[in-house]
């Protein structure tokens, strides 16, 4: 996979050292200790593709999910005309497809879950690595847009949160064109985990910190 401008990823995927970057994050182990294998069930990729088609929106399921998660992590709500809020288009109609509502509900639930079971909506594991990689970077770009809309220009971030946001911005400028090998698959998994944990940290800084302080265990 070719490098563009990301420097938090392993060579062969997008440049740099993903494992080292993740391990260096002081908040990584604190959050990962609580992760369990179960999670709220997101609709699958194809279902969301079909649900989006009638809306004629120029975005894929990863971009929709990234924008939704960014909006929620930045303190936005997903009530009422949530799609228009998330995509900054007040003229968007309420989605009629139940799959989009299920996506919203499962995403909200996973971010609120005390066991931190949140995960990203990406193509299935049997999809080509290039497709999954580009979807991951699309997710990051959309997340930044949604987060900025909800949190504003100066969100109340910790030092670690600011670093995580910077790293997501670097990933948002990356792309991939590799068919993938075992090393690339490992790098992809590391980067996906990096994004997942960074998202939880930002949600914690902006949303959870605004509530009565609770220790994340």
UniProtKB/TrEMBL annotation:
Record-level GO cellular component terms: cytosol
Signal peptide bounds: none
Lineage top rank: taxon: Bacteria
Record-linked InterPro entries: YgfB-like, YgfB-like_sf
Alphabetized Pfam families for the sequence: UPF0149
Protein family per UniProt: Belongs to the UPF0149 family.
This protein's name: YecA family protein
Organism: Solilutibacter pythonis
